[in-house]
Write a structure and sequence with these properties.
single chain; about 425 residues; alpha/beta; FAD/NAD(P)-binding domain; D-Amino Acid Oxidase, Chain A, domain 2; eight-stranded mixed β-sheet; seven-stranded mixed β-sheet; 19 strands; elongated
C-alpha cells in the first residue's frame, strides 16, 4: 500500500473502544481499518462483568437492545467475608430495568465479536489475526502501521490495544506498566441452569446481580467479584501483583479458596467451569493515565489510555472504553483531513464527561490500598454480626460494651480514626 493510498483511520484493537470508534467513523462514511490480533474479535478476551448501557446509546440510540447482553443488574451487593461467615449488603432497585437500564452483565467473547461485526456492517474493514509490529512515522507524525511485510497508511491511527499498550509505548506516550498501577485478575465462568441462578440470587427472569467481594484475597490487596449471566456465573479476583508476589499462595489458589468458601460454594454448587483466564487490569485510574493521550497522527483510547475506574464497589472499564472510542471518532470527524486530532479528542472526552468521571474517582484507589480494608474490617464486621445474633445463654453486660470489645480486638481507636480520615479524603 502506498502512502497515497491510505485509510482515514486505522484502529488497532477490536475491543469495545476500537469497535465503537470504527462504528461511528464508518457510519459517517470514513474509510476504516479495524485490526485485531486475535483470530476474531473477543477470542482472546477473558475479562467480563458488566456494561453500563448509556455508553452504547452514545454510539447509536437503541443499539444496546440489539447487543448480546446477559442480565440487567437490579441487585447491587457488597459481601464481606470472614473465615467461616459473611456479611452482605444488598441494594435492589428494580427501576434500573426501566428505560435505558443501568447496566447489564456481559460476556466479552460474544459481545466483542458482535460489536466488531456491527462496525463491519457500517462499512469498516475488519482484519483479524493481524499483529502490528511497528508504527510508521514521517516528519514526527504517525502515518501508518507495519504488520509483517505490509505497510498500511492512514490519516490517523487509534491505539485501542489494551492495558499493556505496545503502540502507546512505541509512540513514546507511556513507559512500561509498573506493578503498582495494575491488578492481575483471574476469572472463571461457571455454567448453571438459568432457573437455579435466579433461585439462588432471588432474581426474576432476565434480572441480574453484581456482587463485590471483600476479605477473600488471603490478605493480598485486592478483592473479588461475582456477576450473574443468563446461564453462568462470572467469579473472579483482582489482586495487587506486588503484594501477591510476597505471598505463598498463587492467584489460582486464592480463587479456588474463594470458590470453596461456605458463603460462595452454595451459589456455584453443581456448576461446570467452562472458561478460565487471567489478565491485567488498570487500577490507579486518573493518576496512572498517560500525561499525553495523543501525538500528531495518533490517539490512545480505552485501557491503552488507562481509562478504568475502580472505586472498591464498582469496576468500570467497558463503558469508558466505548465513550473514549466515540470521542476519538468525533474528533476525527470534526477535523476532516487533519492528522493532529489530539486537542479535539481531549475536548470530546471533556464534553462526554469521561475526564470528569476519571477525576471524580481519582483517589479511590487510596482507600482500597489500605491492608485493613481487605482483612481487618471484613473480619470485624463479621464478629459484630456474630455478637448481635449468636444466642448461647451467656449475655453481655451491655451490648455497647460488647461491640466495643469486638472493635478493640481488631483495631485501635487511632487506627480507626486514621482510616476514617484517609477514606474521607479518598472520596
Amino acid at each position: 500500500m502506498s502512502a497515497d493510498e491510505k485509510f482515514d483511520a486505522i484502529i488497532i484493537g477490536a475491543g469495545p473502544a476500537g469497535a465503537a470508534c470504527a462504528y461511528v467513523l464508518a457510519k459517517a462514511g470514513k474509510s476504516v481499518l479495524l485490526v485485531e490480533r486475535g483470530v476474531s474479535a473477543g477470542s482472546k478476551n477473558v475479562t467480563g462483568g458488566r456494561l453500563y448501557t448509556y455508553a452504547l446509546e452514545l454510539v447509536e440510540p437503541g443499539l444496546y437492545q440489539q447487543a448480546p447482553l446477559e442480565r440487567k443488574v437490579v441487585r447491587e451487593q457488597i459481601m464481606m467475608l470472614g473465615q467461616n461467615s459473611a456479611v452482605t449488603m444488598d441494594y435492589a432497585d428494580y427501576s434500573f430495568g426501566e428505560g435505558v437500564p443501568q447496566s447489564y452483565s456481559v460476556l466479552r467473547a460474544s459481545f466483542d465479536e458482535w460489536f466488531a461485526a456491527q462496525a463491519e456492517a457500517q462499512g469498516a474493514m475488519l482484519a483479524p489475526g493481524i499483529v502490528v509490529d511497528e508504527l510508521i512515522e514521517a516528519d514526527g507524525r504517525i502515518v501508518g502501521i507495519k504488520a509483517g511485510d505490509d505497510e498500511i497508511y492512514a490519516t490517523v491511527v487509534i491505539a485501542a490495544d489494551g492495558v499493556n499498550s505496545f503502540i502507546a509505548q512505541k509512540a513514546g506516550l507511556r513507559d512500561d506498566i509498573t506493578a503498582h498501577t495494575v491488578g492481575v485478575g483471574a476469572k472463571e465462568i461457571i455454567e448453571l441452569p438459568e432457573k437455579i441462578i435466579e433461585d439462588r440470587f432471588n432474581l426474576q427472569t432476565g434480572e441480574g446481580a453484581a456482587r463485590v467481594l471483600i476479605g477473600c484475597s488471603n490478605g493480598v490487596l485486592g478483592g473479588g467479584f461475582l456477576y450473574t449471566n443468563k446461564g453462568s456465573i462470572s467469579l473472579g479476583v483482582v489482586l495487587n501483583p506486588e503484594d501477591l508476589a510476597s505471598q505463598t499462595k498463587k492467584i489460582h489458589e486464592i480463587l479456588q479458596d474463594l470458590k470453596m468458601h461456605p458463603a460462595i460454594y452454595p451459589l456455584i454448587k453443581d456448576g461446570t467451569t467452562v472458561e478460565y483466564g487471567a489478565h491485567l487490569v488498570p487500577e490507579v485510574g486518573y493518576h496512572a493515565m498517560p500525561k499525553r493521550l495523543y501525538r500528531d497522527g495518533l490517539v490512545l483510547v480505552g485501557d491503552a489510555a488507562g481509562m478504568v475506574v475502580n472505586s472498591g464497589t464498582i469496576l468500570r472499564g467497558i463503558d469508558l472504553a466505548i465513550v473514549s472510542g466515540v470521542a476519538a471518532a468525533q474528533a476525527i470527524l470534526k477535523n476532516a483531513e487533519e492528522s493532529n486530532v489530539g486537542p479535539a479528542y481531549v475536548q470530546a472526552l471533556e464534553n462526554l464527561s469521561l475526564i470528569s468521571t476519571m477525576k471524580l474517582y481519582a483517589n479511590f484507589h487510596e482507600l482500597m490500598s489500605n491492608p485493613r480494608m481487605i482483612s481487618v474490617y471484613p473480619a470485624m464486621a463479621n464478629d459484630m454480626m456474630k455478637t448481635l445474633f449468636a444466642v448461647d445463654g451467656n449475655l453481655p453486660e451491655r451490648m455497647d460494651k460488647a461491640m466495643l470489645k469486638v472493635l478493640k480486638k481488631h483495631v485501635t481507636f487511632a487506627q480507626l480514626i486514621a482510616d476514617g480520615w484517609r477514606g474521607f479524603k479518598a472520596i
